[in-house]
Amino acid sequence: MNEPAPVIEINGLGYAYGSADAVHDLSLSVQPGRCYGLFGRNGAGKTTTMKCLLNLLRPRGGRVRMFGLDPAKAEVEVKRRLAYVPDYVAFYPWMTVRETLDYLASFRTHWNRETERDLLDRFRLDAGQRAGALSKGQRTQVALIAAISPEPELLLLDEPTSGLDPIVRREFIETVIGAYQEGNPGKRTILVSTHLISEFEGLIDEFTIMDGGRNVMTLGADAARERFQKIRARFAGAAPEAGFAGALQVRRTGRELELIANGAGAQIMEQLRGLGPESLTSEALTLEEVFVATLRTGSERRLA
Amino acid sequence: MLLQINYKSGKPVYLQVVDQIKAAAASGAVQVGEPLPSIRPLAEELRVNRNTVAKAYTELESQGVIETVPGKGCFLKPNQSPLKKDIRRKLLIEEIDQAVVQAHHLQVPAEEFLELVQERLQAIGELKRSSDQAAKEAL
User: Fold this and answer.
1) What residue ranges in chain A does DSSP mark as E strands?
2) What is the model's pTM?
3) Which of B10, B41, B49 sits opposite A35 (nearest CB)?
């Protein structure tokens, strides 16, 4: 079977603010219908990458294709097919919510009024309220309605839930799953950058961890949870000082050992069993733990 | 029927949904002919990708556990696997082998293992009987 053409294709992307490298030789591709996570710390290059996809920044190097098109040459066509929710949302403060949505709808060829009404109800937003009087959470909700109502093929979410309260964050994610994905599941693609990884855990199919503008790791979510394991062993006496091939991290406290394995879980378990532990358990790492383990190991390696 | 996703189990999310619905069917928490939650509300409730739930339902349908009635939703089917008996046995043997291997590593001897199997068969059977009874009385 032929792989469908990717919705987003980034090859060797580079960008620098003055002489400061923000994105360096980044490559990734997002297939239609997938929810793709871009994970990184503040300043990892996530927003810069998103802006290059939107032609808000011109790449210094490499190639970006959206729906197979160059966003610098086919800007209107590309933007027609996507919606973008940035981390900081600004509207004209003197417009009401109703006027804001009508204004944004006027740029679109398609706008689902029913979805718009459902979401206004769901978020308990007053359409007559002025945008300037909305809270940060309500502004994000209006931005989400404006992003979902045109039923775009691609949703770009840049740190969409940072700074929001837990209830609003929950509703945001449920809305993306329900109202957005339901329409045409095979074609509704999402690229979300976040450092609130645990909230998006169930939504993410595949992810890239970025650090210092580089792609540190790209993996499927299920594959990551299968590959990364936390193994704990307790011994009758002091924990053995043995080395463990394939362990990302080893913590030793008195009688206990805790190891993080990347793919070598079975071998490490076997080796530990041979040492006769009192107890031996293993569990998968969540995506957030995978993120922390990957970046922490990376920085230790750089320091060494 | 309440489902719960555990990201620390290392098991693919869609398989967790498949296994939990099968467990709910075996214990009578869902009855034959009873509708399963539709994909969208279940995905929202679990806060997992809609496609993950859709994949789980497709898998359950191909295993003959549920059927989709167009326009009405998904329903639990009478327990009739479309697979031949020897294949069903083979699939079960694979699962049993895993439990046997696990028992060895957890130092559970054979007799105790068999006792545990008896105990679980009884426990799940009882759950099923009481759920079936409750379903009958509700009619």
Assistant:
1) 8-17, 20-30, 35-40, 61-66, 82-85, 154-158, 189-194, 206-211, 214-220, 228-234, 247-253, 256-262, 279-284
2) 0.86
3) B49
How do residues A92-137 score in pLDDT, each as one tens digit? 999 999 999 999 999 999 999 999 999 999 999 999 999 999 999 9
Q: Do B8 and A286 touch (CB under 8 A)?
A: yes
| ipTM over the 0.90 cut-off | no
Domain boundary among B58, B76, B94: B76
The B-side interface with A (CB below 8 A) comprises: 5, 7-10, 12-13, 40-41, 43-44, 46-52, 54, 105
Q: Which residues contact A117 (CB under 8 A, 6 or more apart)?
A: none
Q: Is residue A303 part of a domain?
A: no
Q: Domains in chain A: how many in total?
A: 2
Neighbouring residues of B18: CB distance < 8 A, sequence distance ≥ 6: B56, B59, B60, B63
Domain assignment present for residue A191? The answer is yes
B42 within some domain: yes
Q: What is the pLDDT of residues B65-112, one digit of tens each?
A: 898 888 888 888 887 666 778 888 888 899 999 999 888 888 889 999
Give the pLDDT band (50/70/90) at residue A231.
Answer: very high
Chain B: closest CA distance from residue A228 (Å): 9
B28 and B72 part of one domain? yes
Does residue A285 share a domain with residue A241?
yes
